[in-house]
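Record format v2
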Amino acid sequence: MFDVVIVGSGASGVAAALSLSKKGIFPVLIDAGLKPPSDPPIEENFYDYCERNDCFSQVIGRNYEGLSNLERNRIPVPAKLTSPKIRFVTERAAELSPVIENNYNLIQSFARGGLGNAWGAGLYKYTDRDLEDFPVKEKDLEPWYKRLSGEIGISGENDDLTPYFGRDDHLQPPLRLSINAAHLLKRFRRKKSRLQKKGVFIGRPRLGVLSEEKDGRKPCDYRNLEFWEPVLSYIYSPAMTLEKLIRSNKIRYLSGLLVQRWDRRKENIIVQARSIDNGQSSTFSCKRLILAAGAVNSARLALSSRNDYRTRLTLLDNPALQFPLVLPGRIGRRLEREAFGLTQLNMIYEREADKKLYQGSILEVTSPSRAEFFGSFPLSARDNLKMIRMMLPALMVMQMFFPIGRKEGALLSLEESGKLKIQGSGRRVEDKIIGEILKIMRAIGAFSHPFLVIHVPEGHGIHYAGTLPMGKDPDGPYMCETNGELWGEPGVFVVDGSVFPVLPAKNFSFAVMANAMRIACNVACSLKE
Amino acid sequence: MNIMERIYRSLFNKEIPIKVRDRFSIASGLLDKTFLREEIEEARQACAEITDLEALELAARYRNKLPYLVHQFQLMVRLAETIPESRHEFVNSKDRRFTGVFYVLLSGMRTFIKLVKGFFLLRKQNV
């Protein structure tokens, strides 16, 4: 009989475990727990390595697994998830959690640390403005933001984006900007007052990436390995906190298990799990169950535990667009080999027409394989190769996220076969917004064309939420109380993105983690009572 | 010269390195399973009768035709990038401001000519 069982080791599960352990409660964490391959890491700059060595096994993989995006009729997944050493993040997902997708493209993880092994490490506070439709306010999350900030180590700056990201006095200095990003930021600052009147704000991102040493973790060394190495000490991953908790005996970690459902026996909750290797069943009895399996799999557990094959739950994910941005002055320049290969800048667009906030992450593209861009240029094959050489040093990509409300979400249900079914909403970002954003980018010296803008397939925003939303007065079996407790299920708490009733345009990981800590702290208090 | 060698030559204008050739054969064997036999046959037949594969691939890409041929070009580029001898084709390691701009302009014109030729070839092939 355990006090607390947590399901899932992603960002929310680990944050909940951390919060419980600080209160002196040591939970059991049940997880599929797939691990990265143990191949030796690349010890030098990615470009230097590839110039001296055959990098086939690092880029394509010994079993040609890095070519999976080239399969016919396949909707390409983000390039990082096809990288031979990083693809463990989404491995076996189709087998462990089968889903029938209609106009939807789900990305699931059963890895130790979850999707946090391959994230962009953007960590943004939800402010009161973002939390308008939530039953909690910024002040409720603030203490947990602070604790997490101390645990993770966040780099960034209090700048023009502070009103949107919240003030943080414990930030590490921001990372060194790439030449392209520095050029954009300079152009923005020159035209700041005019652009700000139009609701455009550009500044440094808040990243779980170290610019200074912390707890034995080395700072970012700008080697462009972000797409190739699964463990880089400077990029925070929930797996790091998990390892720390395991080492200090603060949790009992049971990997290789997939939780199937829960039942009740008197006051106790009986968790049923099966081995992912041999299918053998096991049960765990606990006083409190914390669901942190992600919005999709926590919903699956809730539906299957009630044998409910009728209810359709709302599944949210931020709609997103990708804008390739060309800085003409950089065409033909030497490729910058020493850069941080992820987010360099953030843009907030406070749109006058609908009073909504949109957030863009402007990324450097030095880390992915160069050949990845071959199909992105509209020229002949040989000319596309020339473009890769001459144009890529001038290229950045902006990933723009859009907010989503409950009416715009996809629908998720459980089939009697045990498969989940997800029906996409078919939503599409208005073309008018694309034109406005391109105009803004032109003003800061970055050029693109609507023809080149990519509508990220529904589900590839990878911010899944909203299946078991929390509300002040929950009135249905698939809603949660403000304290995360599932309606009609005393002792079952939900701490992942499922409880978010809507999604603002911001990356939600930091808010999910802070909320998970808040709920777990309440769970600990209730146990002590 | 087989299709693989011709694709490599139209991309890099030189003979295909043994390593790339071997890997391409294996990768192609794995990925061919995801294509219909007719798609593969159609592309092979078109390649057998047409010399300018670059023009054919470009037009096919624009018209959503010959998916197997388009795919083979992408595969070749992915594999070629991994050997050190090809790295200079992908990474610009010197500042070439004017050459770069010149290439961009020239590439646009060259592509246009290839595209017109490619459309003509597609029509001739009745694809």
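The helical segments of chain B are 3-12, 18-31, 37-49, 53-63, 67-80, 87-90, 97-125.
Chain B has a mean pLDDT of 95.
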